[in-house]
Specification:
- The chain crosses the membrane at residues 12-31, 51-68.
- Keywords: Membrane, Transmembrane, Transmembrane helix.
- The chain has 127 residues and is mainly alpha-helical.
- Helix content is 42%, strand content 5%.
- The chain folds into 2 domains: 2-68, no CATH class; 84-124, no CATH class.
- The protein contains 3 helices and 3 strands; from the N terminus they run H-H-E-E-E-H.
- The two termini are 33 Å apart.
């Protein structure tokens, strides 16, 4: 499970790099400010200035998204980073599981990290 999370994190970085490099390449390929540069699309037809500006705007949006996107791996729904437990029914949720809104599926109670759980709740500890 740990390798899967690392792979997802690295792929997120590669996607950002791809968007930035592709956006920069797209802006310079379209070059709407340069009237001598003609961009051709399929079939060999030249694009007009409006299409070049549209390509530039889309590439700029891709670059801005890649730079300013603050989402993390946790936000993308890959699951828990550590083991958790329900304080009511003591059901354990292992690392990587994805309970709905961090609630126990049976009790609908907020789950807690398993580490140190019985120190915080000594009344639940079996003697």
């Amino acid at each position: 499970m740990k390798n899967k999370i690392i792979k997802k994190k690295n792929s997120s970085i590669f996607i950002r790099i791809f968007l930035i490099v592709g956006g920069i390449f797209g802006i310079f390929a379209a070059a709407p400010w340069n009237k001598e540069n003609i961009l051709y699309h399929r079939g060999g037809y030249p694009t007009d200035t409006t299409a070049n500006w549209a390509i530039t705007v889309l590439c700029t949006i891709a670059i801005v998204y890649a730079v300013l996107d603050k989402s993390t791996i946790k936000d993308r729904g890959l699951g828990l980073y550590t083991d958790h437990i329900c304080p009511n029914c003591e059901q354990v949720f292992l690392k990587g599981e994805k309970p709905n809104n961090n609630l126990c599926s049976k009790c609908k109670v907020q789950i807690e990290p398993l580490e140190g759980f019985y120190k915080r709740h000594p009344e639940l500890k079996d003697n």
